């Protein structure tokens, strides 16, 4: 199990306890020292939504945010078919490559896109089934596998191309948004 940073849901004012009094007479916060206490006099709203971020993600992105003001995510910069489409094309395992930009590092490594052949027949592109021996069952697992890498890292993609199983070394580039 991954460790994580957990953020409790916001507490609506109607359920907030009144501020506790410190023996010195000052108000203390139910959230701890240094955090302003809830105010029953100020109107505020809350959707009551909380979230958790894995600590490994925090440790990776916070230094980038501090240094550059943005996060650099490593990726292949190819279009991957949504699982529903891949399934309709009888791709039951792996991530089906739809498009590969000609100037991308993935194209230079030899990754092939899905195309249309004679009379409009669909010719499947490469199907990514593993990243550095980590199995990839679908699009989400591909993205999850790539999260552990940085821009410029080289990975070995195990792909299925027709009836062939191949390994392609690919250098990851900054993921376009």
Automatic annotation (TrEMBL):
Residues 47-163 form the PDZ domain. InterPro entries: Chloro_Bact_Ser_Proteases, DEGP1/8_PDZ_dom, PDZ, PDZ_sf. Pfam families: PDZ_2 (PF13180). Residues 17-32 have a biased composition (Low complexity). GO terms for molecular function: peptidase activity. Signal peptide: none annotated. SMART domains: PDZ. Keywords: Hydrolase, Protease. Residues 1-37 are annotated as: Disordered. GO terms for biological process: proteolysis. This is Protease Do-like 8. It comes from Morus notabilis. The lineage of its organism: Eukaryota, Viridiplantae, Streptophyta, Embryophyta, Tracheophyta.
